[in-house]
Amino acid sequence: MTRTEKLLAMREQVKLGGGQDKIDKQHQSGKLTARERIQYLLDADSFQEVSAYVTHRATLFGMDKNSLLSDGVITGWGKINGRIAYVYAQDFTVLGGSLGEAHGMKIAHIMQMAHQNGAPVIGMNDSGGARIQEGVDSLAAYGEIFYQNTLASGVIPQLSVIMGPCAGGAVYSPAITDFIFMVENSANMFITGPQVVKAVTFEDVDAESLGGAQVHASKSGVADFIAPTDQEVLDQVKRLFAFLPENNLSPAPYKPTDDPAQRKTDKIISIIPENPSMPYDVHAVIEEVTDNGEFMEVAGRYAPNVVVGFAHLNGHTVGIVANQPYYQAGVLDINGSDKGARFIRFCDAFHIPLITFVDTPGFLPGVDQEHGGIIRHGAKMIYAYAEATVPKLSIILRKAYGGAYIVMSSKHLRGDINFALPNAEIAVMGPEGAVNIVFRKEIQAASDGETTRQAYIDEYRNEFSNPYVAASRGYIDDVILPEECRQKLILALESLQQKKAATPARKHGNIPL
């Protein structure tokens, strides 16, 4: 065999991974192989593989007779719609995708390349976990990956796609990255699996109930996006990728639009009820404002009282944060605060302007919230907004009461442009609660207490629950009509494109985690 023939044979061996029988088994379980996933994600013929001939160095437990090229992970780079991305995909057909020293170092190396070259990194996880036969070397490799994740955080976008098992130490690399995608019914994530849980806590649970996609999308908040198949999840990755910049020094890609900047948002007046107690879906407001009504929501199943996601305004990527009156009246709570704060900090790290739609009666009261640390968690939102130096615009759609008014990108946390609709209510608390405190004695003394109480409520709403007191202090820059929302936001955004804000000289702040 000539050297050329040997090379070509090795290339074929690399493509086969763990062998055709294991490839067939992967397909039978409804999953793509690692190489097929890369091919589906990247533009045709753009993938350039590196470290394809790497093998492990382990010799114990029969590992000296069980060595395959690539060592269970495919790494390299390619393009998504013409833009560079670095990728790795664990190959479950090779030793169950288990992570040993060489496997882990390949991942750490491609992450380092992505970091040094200022391009996003996308990891596709499908692994049986740490390779037990390699002992502490496999743990060391995990540590190297975590370190590279941390160095790259806020420098390049990091996306994790869970497409099979991801257990033990393996879960922490995705947890450090910016966004997590999961495939329903085939992906799971947990620190300890069902068998260990049963042995320690005597709880009987299966992998799907313990750490499946639905669980992490709705209960734990670990997963930002889920879909039924490998292909649909990778389509979501491509859609999100289109909103994101290559790195923290590059602008997000511009998307030309035929949606006029001066288009009136006439539907908003009918979306938001006049009765402040009536709910509505804030998604309808967001979609009325954004280019062609497009909005990619992040973590939509988790803490639905706070809505976050990406959209375009006049072709420019923006991050949107909104209270959701349709769920718990749009209150801020522990989970919603965490969700909002993390999204705000991502946008700030990558120079994505923030648009905030405000309609909240305040923070959620209750023993569970107080004991769960709503003070600490709510402070994360305050910290995130105050720390952010990207353009910050807001529209108060209806209610903005108490501390929640301050939190939601207010002028006091250095919001750049703060708008309010004419029916906005800005006050320390709602009229009903305020009247019960301020006029308690007068109401008790009145012969018709309820009529008197309602009269005070109406008076309070007219005098205080409106945007004009705040506007008179300069806390609201303009009171706008509902049909003006899109054009006002776009004009404000244009004025802030070159915004520069000085920050204190320090190593880093200490966000209340």
Can you give a write-up of this model?
This protein has helices at residues 3-16, 20-28, 34-41, 101-117, 136-152, 172-176, 194-201, 207-211, 213-220, 230-241, 268-271, 282-289, 334-349, 367-372, 374-387, 402-407, 431-438, 440-445, 449-463, 468-472, 485-495, and strands at residues 48-50, 73-80, 83-90, 121-125, 158-162, 165-167, 179-183, 188-190, 225-227, 296-298, 306-313, 316-323, 354-360, 392-401, 417-420, 425-427, 478-479. The longest helix has 17 residues, at 101-117. α4 packs parallel to α5 (136-152). It is an alpha/beta fold and 513 residues long. It has 21 helices and 17 strands.
Provide a concise account of the structure shown.
With 513 residues, the protein is an alpha/beta fold.
Number of domains: 3
Reported by name, the CATH topology of the largest domain is 2-enoyl-CoA Hydratase, Chain A, domain 1
CATH architecture of the largest domain, by name, is Alpha-Beta Complex
Overall mean pLDDT stands at 92
Helix proportion range: 25-40%
Low-confidence stretches: none
* CATH level-four homologous superfamily name of the largest domain: 2-enoyl-CoA Hydratase, Chain A, domain 1
Radius of gyration: 26 Å
List keywords for this structure.
513 residues; 2-enoyl-CoA Hydratase, Chain A, domain 1; 8-stranded mixed sheet; 7-stranded mixed sheet; 21 helices
